[in-house]
Amino acid sequence: MSQFKFSLEKLLNYKIAIENQKQESLASHQIKRQQLEWDLSCTLQEYDCIIRSITSVKTLDLPMLSHQLEYMESLKKKADQLSDAICETDKIIKKCRHELIIAMKNRKVIEKLKVRKKQAFFVEMDKRQTNEINESALIRHLRGSES
């Protein structure tokens, strides 16, 4: 009995590898986005901490206040940059998801073709076995009627 061999197995493996690559790309960008969100959260917390420290001081030290305001401004710029980076990463993630969906569809098409070919192979094998059984029964019948 022969075994089923799918002629497009290499193509299917290639499609699976492409899909895995797209999944890894999406995951790395999602991790990058989480890191950016974490950095933004820490920056905003630090900004709030400085505001609280400024408002809690009863006597004003102008050089210190000036330094804190400059630092707050740099934190605000950093927060804006992180927000922009998060927006860019969101766009990249959206693109990666779209590419992953396409890769999954392409793989699925090849897999469905493989299933159909495998089913057709087994139907053909069943037909061959049935024909062989019928032929052997016919031969036995003819030998039995000749005697």
Please characterize this protein's 3D structure.
This protein is rod-shaped. The two termini are 33 Å apart. The chain is mainly α and 147 residues long. The longest helix has 85 residues. The mean pLDDT is 92. Helix 1 packs antiparallel against helix 2. The protein contains two helices and no strands.
How would you sum up this structure in a few lines?
This protein is mostly helical and 147 residues long.
Distance between the termini: 33 Å
Order of helices and strands: HH
Mean pLDDT: 92
- Sheet with the most strands, sense and barrel status: none
Please identify the oligomeric state. Answer: single chain
Number of helices: 2
Rg, alpha carbons: 34 Å
Keywords:
mainly alpha, 147 residues, 90% helix, single chain
Secondary structure layout plus pairing:
Blueprint (H helix, E strand, L loop, with lengths): L8 H48 L5 H85 L1
